[in-house]
């Protein structure tokens, strides 16, 4: 019997949420596998990143630590103690992943079925291996006392994902060769998901500047590249190379997902000084400036040039480049007989701020029912629509307007990666496509309820989210947490 599912991708496939990959059972491939005959995930092999809350850092866990020690707000005189508490946590995380158990072989098998790796770009699919990453780690690793997060996390994650047993027989396996070996040794692959490309453009909204790819980047390894926005013709050349290898895996069904518009998640916050609501938007939904999400509107508006930012025209340019990537993906799928899951379109439908609050995405009724049965009726509007959106998570429980009390809920605390419920929506879109083409789907009765219960930010959000300006100010001005996004896109 063929393997029901193999997934290839980046952090979105790996299962990163709120700054780290930890529980790979809530990654969308695992959620799909539960519906393809493996409800308890006994057969679907996936890496283990549970140590110390995940790699590189679990921001949700950090916020809960601060709540336990300092309540819902850190007062000025408590900052030194808070810094010490954070430093102790960072020391443990760094030690685990750089020198401790996180560097050793894991017991999750020799070949995984979830082959997603945080930080991967399109061209890393057939070039990054355990052996390459081991060499990079030996060459570039250093002990940074001022920025104590696990360095070169992408390379550490690659080793633990592509060669978890640290077996020399698998040290040259890339995502491509690992998937091909799964197919060869496990009677083929029924469904293959391929979703790479977000990191070919994500760096633009993290660094807030555009650095175009050069022709040599097509053949460069990850650590040799410095670009953060790939020329569409360069993207197409790599895609054309890779499609031959996807075909060679010889899966029964191949699903390609489109790349989301990276200007929608709150990792970069749109601001038009002096304007709010829909008045701040252009006719096509863009703001005058885009800056870091921990910079408040009134602070930025006093002197925009004081802060790093993109202008609206640059944000539109980035999205137009992504549109060209997605057209290339659709062209390849059409030519090869692959199936497209248009996740870019779905995120566009969910884009709360860009749409002036007029979300058009049709939430599954099963999710709405699960919110109700798990004690979350306050996350359902009077109209029946879930109060879940793409804004940064914020609690204002005393607001007289129910719909303002709980903002966000689909994007985690790093401002880009999905929450468990959002991973459920992603899985649901793949399942709808699979069902449409005739794949047998046996969704467990408690599927959505399990997802809702697994979402700590939804079930029991940290109390310091009520004082978001204070909390973000501490995290992004007194700790190295702001480096996480660079780490997750493979540049640190």
TrEMBL record:
Organism taxonomic ancestry: Bacteria, Bacillati, Cyanobacteriota, Cyanophyceae, Chroococcidiopsidales
Species annotation: Aliterella atlantica CENA595
Gene Ontology MF terms: hydrolase activity, acting on ester bonds
Family matches, as SUPFAM superfamilies: SGNH hydrolase
Pfam families: Lipase_GDSL
Protein name (Swiss-Prot/TrEMBL): Lipase
């Amino acid at each position: 019997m063929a393997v029901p599912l193999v997934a290839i991708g980046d952090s979105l496939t790996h299962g990163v949420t709120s700054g780290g990959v930890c529980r790979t059972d809530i990654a969308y491939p695992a959620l799909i596998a539960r519906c393809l005959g493996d409800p308890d995930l006994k057969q679907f092999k996936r890496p283990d990143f549970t140590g110390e809350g995940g790699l590189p850092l679990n921001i949700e866990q950090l916020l809960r630590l601060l709540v336990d020690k300092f309540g819902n707000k850190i007062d000025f005189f408590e900052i030194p103690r808070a810094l010490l508490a954070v430093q102790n946590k960072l020391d443990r995380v760094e030690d685990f992943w750089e020198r401790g158990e996180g560097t050793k072989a894991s017991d999750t098998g020799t070949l995984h079925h979830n082959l997603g790796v945080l930080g991967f770009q399109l061209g890393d699919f057939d070039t990054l291996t355990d052996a390459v990453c081991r060499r990079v780690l030996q060459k570039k690793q250093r002990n940074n006392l001022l920025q104590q997060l696990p360095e070169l996390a992408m390379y550490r994650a690659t080793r633990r994902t592509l060669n978890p047993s640290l077996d020399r027989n698998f040290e040259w396996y890339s995502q491509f060769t690992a998937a091909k070996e799964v197919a060869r040794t496990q009677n083929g692959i029924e469904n293959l998901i391929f979703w790479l490309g977000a990191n070919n453009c994500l760096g633009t909204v993290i660094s807030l500047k555009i650095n175009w790819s050069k022709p040599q980047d097509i053949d460069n390894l990850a650590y040799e590249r410095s670009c953060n926005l790939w020329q569409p013709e360069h993207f197409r050349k790599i895609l054309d190379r890779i499609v031959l290898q996807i075909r060679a895996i010889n899966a029964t069904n191949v699903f390609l997902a489109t790349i989301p518009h990276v200007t929608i998640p709150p990792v970069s916050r749109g601001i038009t000084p002096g304007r709010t609501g829909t008045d701040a938007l252009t006719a096509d939904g863009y703001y005058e400036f885009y800056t870091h999400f921990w910079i408040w509107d009134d602070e930025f508006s006093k002197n925009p040039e004081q802060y790093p930012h993109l202008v609206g025209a640059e944000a539109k340019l980035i999205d137009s480049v992504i549109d060209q990537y997605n057209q290339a993906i659709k062209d390849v799928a059409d030519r090869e007989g692959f199936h497209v899951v248009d996740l870019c379109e779905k995120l566009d439908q969910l884009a709360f701020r860009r749409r002036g609050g007029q979300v058009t995405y049709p939430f599954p009724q099963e999710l709405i029912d699960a919110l109700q049965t798990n004690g979350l009726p306050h996350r359902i509007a009077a109209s029946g629509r879930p109060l879940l959106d793409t804004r940064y998570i914020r609690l204002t429980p005393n607001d007289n307007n129910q719909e303002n009390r709980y903002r966000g809920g689909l994007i985690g605390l790093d401002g880009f990666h999905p929450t468990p419920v959002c991973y459920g929506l992603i899985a649901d879109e793949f399942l709808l496509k699979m069902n449409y083409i005739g794949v047998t789907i046996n969704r467990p009765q408690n599927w959505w309820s399990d997802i809702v219960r697994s979402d700590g930010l939804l079930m029991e959000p940290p109390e310091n989210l009520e004082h978001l300006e204070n909390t973000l100010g501490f995290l992004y001005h007194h700790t190295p947490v702001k480096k996480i996004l660079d780490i997750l896109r493979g540049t640190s």
